[in-house]
Amino acid sequence: MSGSLIGTGARTRLGLVLALALVAACGRFDAQTPGSLDNMTAQQIYQLGEVEVETGDPADAAFYFGEIERLYPYSEYAQRALIMQAYAYHRDRDYPNSRAAAQRFIDFYPAEDDTAYAQYLLALSYYDQIDDVGRDQGLTFQALQSLRTVIEQYPESEYARASILKFDLAFDHLAAKEMEVGRYYLKRANYAAAISRFRVVVEQFQTTTQTPEALHRLVESYLALGLDAEAQTAGAILGANYPSTTWYQDSYALLTGRGLSVEARGDNWLASIYRQVVRGEFL
């Protein structure tokens, strides 16, 4: 974020002390009573929000920042309060409201320095909910789209690198979901359905950490179906790209245990990938 917001000289200790003094002076004052903030300046309300977001309740902070937008929509604090409201909601894990506030900032202030941070917060509102592989992957797709926006529209911002790292993790998350479903089918000997999932990983998520296991599971599945050429080719790709992994060692043992060599054979979809990835023969 820019110098006007979190972690900068603009947020001075004096401002925090004044805000704390204001709270103490108010005694039993309930800021959320209708009209209770009407006689305060935008700066005073903003300072109350700063105190809450740092040391108190982020939900209360979001309320204060929202009141600035309501009472002083054209003040210099309104813009700062809106991005801070998005941040406070995110601290409170109120992701829908964080996203809404961040989107309003993007819509109202598209050319400001903090717009990159607003877009990053919007992406985080999706990303921070995708840690469970078993959840609906719609959030992951939305996180990827929002992170891509940060990367492409704000490549020079301090949030671009963090977005790239999170994009890679979210992409790996999608591949992990495909693997989870594929393993489910494999355990139930539904080899055709398992192969379709592992194929998605190899073709669409080949840069993720899930690819070595996907190739090994293809070896297992194809051997179970008696499709030796496909199994051998999957093993060949695995050996060429991930020779030091336990997945290749397991695939090698499976193939050679059946008297099969680890080599690309036939004219199947895996053979096409082998020609492109291993031999560099792009059609």
UniProtKB/TrEMBL annotation:
Q: What is its main location?
A: membrane
Instruction: State its location(s).
Output: Cell outer membrane
Keyword annotations of the record: Cell outer membrane, Membrane, Signal
Residue ranges annotated for the Outer membrane lipoprotein BamD-like domain, each copy included = 39-234
Where would one find the signal peptide in this protein? Answer: 1-31
Entry-linked InterPro entries: BamD, BamD-like, TPR-like_helical_dom_sf
The source's superkingdom equals Bacteria
Q: Name one Pfam family in it.
A: YfiO
User: GO BP, one example?
Assistant: protein insertion into membrane
GO CC annotation: cell outer membrane
Looking up PANTHER family in the UniProt record yields: CELL DIVISION COORDINATOR CPOB (PTHR37423:SF6), SOLUBLE LYTIC MUREIN TRANSGLYCOSYLASE-RELATED (PTHR37423)
Write out the similarity annotation.
Belongs to the BamD family.
Q: What does this protein do?
A: Part of the outer membrane protein assembly complex, which is involved in assembly and insertion of beta-barrel proteins into the outer membrane.
HAMAP family (alphabetical): OM_assembly_BamD
Could you describe the subunit structure of this protein?
Answer: Part of the Bam complex.
Name assigned to this protein:
Outer membrane protein assembly factor BamD
What does UniProt list as this organism's lineage? Bacteria, Pseudomonadati, Pseudomonadota, Alphaproteobacteria, Rhodobacterales
